Amino acid sequence: MDKSIEIEVIKNMSKNNENLQDYACKNNEAIRLYKIAEDFRPPFFRDIDRILYSLSYTRYIDKTQVYTNNSNDMISKRMTHVQMVSKIARTIGRALNLNEDLIEAASLGHDLGHVPFGHVGESILNEISLKYNEGYFNHNVQSVRTLMYIENNGKGSDITLQVLDAIFCHNGEMLEGMYYPVKKTKEEFLNEYNESYKNKEILKKVKPMTLEGCVVRISDVIAYVGKDVEDALRLGRIRFEDIPSDILEVLGSTNSSIVNTIVVDIINNSLNKNYIKLSSHIFDALNKLIKFNYNYIYNKANTKSQIEEYKNMFNKLFDLYYSQLKNQEKDSDIFTLFLNGMSSDYKNNNSNARIVIDYIAGMTDDFIQLQYKKYFGVV
Description:
Layout (H helix, E strand, L loop, with lengths): L2 H11 L29 H10 L2 H4 L19 H19 L3 H10 L8 H14 L7 H16 L6 H8 L9 E2 L6 H10 L15 H25 L9 H7 L3 H16 L5 E2 L2 H17 L7 H23 L6 H6 L5 H6 L2 H10 L3 H12 L3
Antiparallel strand pairs: 1-2
Helix pairs in contact: 2-5, 4-5, 4-10, 4-12, 5-8, 5-10, 6-14, 6-17, 7-8, 8-10, 10-12, 10-13, 11-13, 14-17, 14-18
């Protein structure tokens, strides 16, 4: 690009950055784990591109949100969820005059580490990981690991620290009335990341380092809570009459009204503040709706026989892949479809158990079932 044109393009690309509110994360504050040659794209904008074009992003399209193996093609998948998180978070971010590029990158990348069959699969892989002394498995931690160590053939994508941190801290299962960012150094972030494999309580304590990360964290909740009710109603898993009327009176009776009510409330309570806040009556109603979802939707999304089927599938495939790595069966799928294309650093710096965990965690619902059928003859 001609130098004079490049200067003007850089200025055009960064226009919004010049007018952000005082507490927003500016582009010149971006931190990368490794120094790279920047181009005309702002750093967080470039992160969006790297995430959007990653292989793990492509696999969102066939990963469970809540309901697995249903015949209704209007039910949410992980792909639709992350897009909804991105849209909701960018709406809040634009209204509050925050860095939308940072928000979009973190939103699109926050669930990259989700495994086949959603949270049930995550729980099973956690049991396997602990059994092989690889520490706790959490999808948000795996999302960070995917971007730092697995994408780009095991060399990582070098995403900014602020985006990685927002992904790491996105825990959508924990609702708070107010979200304050906590400033961190690169070393402090890496310490939290590494500690999460050893201490299962740390993810309950971590806070995003940016206000944008706080927006992504609450937007994850807003994106799933009403949509999951909508999906459950569409599948006949719950009745509209099951939903407590005091929740509906505050938040609304449709996903659209629930999203709008919460977003407007956050904007009203957070404009030009150094925190993201819900009013007390909205917080209470949202908290009740989350508890309703757990009791009526998430805890009943899979039958006992389905869960046992998934456990059997995960464990048999793990044992098979682990044996294939140990015996160096280089014509097996874990080599030809995954390991052969990885960097020497990835191959040399990870145990066989960790490699298998990465391989399974990256699978889609369909692929893990095809693998099971290929090697064991049934699904």
